[in-house]
Amino acid sequence: MVEASKSIINVFVDCDWGKKNADLSAKFGVRGYPTVIFVDSKGNQIEELGDRSPEGAKKQIEAIAKKYGKAFPATFAEVAEAAKKEEKLVLFIFATKGKDSMALEEALSDDALAEALGKFVIARTVIKRDDAEAKRFAVASYEQPVLLVLDPAAEKPEVAPLRKIVGKKTVKELLKEFQSIKRPAKPEGGGN
């Protein structure tokens, strides 16, 4: 079940028996705790967890991920070629297991960012000290989420990311950051 849950973004909402986040409890009709609800990228409910056995939950998560989601690649190499072909930049999300990361990823799924995110091919991984990508891009020691905007055509993109965004940001802050990023000029001769 743990492996299956890596194919979806998990957001934990503290309701403290109705004392916190009452708006979300009301929106989704939560009557008891814990309640597990699956939503799409726009926040619309897809379904509620049915079978709570590990095998039943695993099957439901896998079915939802297959039907509604697409897992982000976890390495720069996986997205660099696609980004080059599509003439886009790479947005590499280095997530953590903390609240700031969940808030940042929730902001990234906001409709207001859809157009701005269209200029990126996205990769995502969780920061771990022993992770090769976290080490390569010098984020292995971070306890907050990090977004790196990278030029896939750069010889060593880890040396000079186009933008490094650290910590929780609002939709408005992210939009401003993304809109200010300019793709590097192509070298003379039109090649990448």
Write a brief caption for the model:
With 192 residues, the protein is of the alpha+beta class.
Describe this structure in words.
The chain is α+β, with helices and mostly antiparallel strands and 192 residues long. It has two domains: 2-68, no CATH class; 76-179, Glutaredoxin (3-Layer(aba) Sandwich). Helix content is 33%, strand content 16%. It has eight helices and six strands; from the N terminus they run H-H-E-E-H-H-E-H-H-E-H-E-E-H. The radius of gyration is 18 Å and the shape is elongated. The protein starts with a helix and ends in a 13-residue tail after the last helix.
CATH architecture of the largest domain: 3-Layer(aba) Sandwich
* Helix-strand category: alpha+beta
Q: What is the class of the largest domain in the CATH system?
A: Alpha Beta
Query: Residue share in helices?
Result: 25-40%
Q: Which word captures the global form? A: elongated
Q: CATH homologous superfamily of the largest domain, by name? A: Glutaredoxin
DSSP strand count: 6
Assign the CATH topology of the largest domain.
Glutaredoxin
Number of spatially distinct domains: 2
Question: Secondary-structure element sequence?
Answer: HHEEHHEHHEHEEH
Distance between the termini: 42 Å
Helix run count: 8
Strand order of the largest sheet: 4-3-5-6
